[in-house]
């Protein structure tokens, strides 16, 4: 077990056990899960058996379009967390647009999940943005 701060930092930045501790902070998992759930909820009705009877025309097409786009944005949040601001705003806009164009945004559940997932994705701060500090935690700034 390394005892010095430099040895712990090398262990945490390398592969193996240190990488396992760093991984959950390097991806916005809650945002990914909520965004994917929103996409699946919006896809649910157009993908069902009663699609021909319930959703002819634009509502069925936009349900497939917005549901699959939200699932793709969830994957984009996971694999490219550095672009989380753009992706979060896109998720929120698609979720709000699906409220008008599809089956009330997956009966409001898909819209709410999408807005919450997009907000979490936009607000997430992980290890991608913060370079490791040599001196440890940042000291409070003095006023003046």
Low-confidence stretches: none
How is the quaternary structure best described?
Answer: single chain
Question: Helix and strand string, N-terminal first?
Answer: HHHHHHHH
Rg calc: 20 Å
Distance between the termini: 43 Å
Helix content estimate: 55-70%
Biggest β-sheet: count, sense, barrel?
none
What portion of residues belong to β-strands? under 5%
Structural class determined from secondary elements? mainly alpha
Query: How much is the average pLDDT?
Result: 77
Query: What is the helix tally?
Result: 8
What's the overall geometry? elongated
How many extended strands?
A: 0
Could you outline the blueprint of secondary structure elements for this entry?
Blueprint: H1 5-13, H2 17-22, H3 29-44, H4 51-54, H5 58-79, H6 84-101, H7 104-107, H8 109-123
């Amino acid at each position: 077990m390394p005892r010095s701060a430099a040895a712990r930092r090398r262990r945490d930045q390398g592969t193996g056990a240190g990488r396992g501790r760093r991984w959950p902070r390097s991806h916005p998992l809650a945002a990914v899960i909520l965004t994917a759930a929103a996409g699946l909820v919006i896809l649910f009705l157009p993908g069902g058996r009663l699609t021909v009877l319930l959703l002819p025309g634009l509502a069925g097409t936009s349900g497939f379009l917005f549901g699959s786009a939200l699932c793709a944005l969830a994957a984009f949040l996971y694999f490219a967390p550095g672009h989380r601001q753009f992706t979060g705003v896109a998720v929120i806009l698609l979720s709000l647009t699906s409220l008008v164009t599809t089956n009330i945004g997956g009966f409001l559940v898909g819209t709410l999940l999408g807005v919450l997932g997009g907000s979490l994705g936009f607000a997430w701060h992980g290890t991608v943005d913060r370079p490791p500090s040599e001196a440890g935690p940042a000291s409070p700034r003095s006023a003046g």
